[in-house]
Specification:
With 96 residues, the protein is α+β, with helices and mostly antiparallel strands. The protein has one domain: Structural Genomics Hypothetical 15.5 Kd Protein In mrcA-pckA Intergenic Region, Chain A, CATH 3.10.290.10. Helices cover 22% and strands 29% of the residues. It has a five-stranded antiparallel beta sheet. β2 and β3 form a beta hairpin. The longest helix has 9 residues.
Length: 96
C-alpha cells in the first residue's frame, strides 16, 4: 500500500481493518473506553495512529467480550476485502 498515509484516525482504521462494521460503531467502541493505544486508554475517535502503534481492544459485550492486542502495520487506503484488511495488523496475543 504505497500511497497509504503515515497516520490515520483510529475510528477509520478500525473500520478499514474490519474490526467494526461501520465507522459509527468504531467511534462508539473508542468513546466507550474500549481501546488503548500503546497502553494508554483513549476516548477520542479522532486520535491518530500509525504503523508500530500497539492497540488493545475490548471487542464484544458481556461474557462474549474478548481482548485483542495487535500491532498496526499499515494505515491502508480503503476498506477492502478481508485479506487486505488482515495485512494492516499483526496479532500480538491470541484473541478470545
Amino acid at each position: 500500500m504505497a500511497d497509504a498515509p503515515e497516520r490515520i484516525r483510529i475510528d477509520k482504521w478500525l473500520w478499514q481493518a474490519r474490526f467494526c462494521k461501520t465507522r459509527g460503531l468504531a467511534q462508539e467502541l473508542v468513546q466507550g473506553g474500549k481501546a488503548r493505544v500503546n497502553g494508554q486508554r483513549i476516548d477520542k475517535p479522532g486520535r491518530a495512529i500509525g504503523p508500530g502503534d500497539v492497540l488493545t481492544l475490548r471487542l464484544g459485550k458481556g461474557q462474549d467480550a474478548r481482548i485483542c492486542v495487535l500491532r498496526v502495520l499499515d494505515c491502508g487506503t480503503r476498506r477492502g476485502p478481508a485479506v487486505e484488511a488482515q495485512a494492516l495488523y499483526a496479532l500480538l496475543e491470541p484473541d478470545g
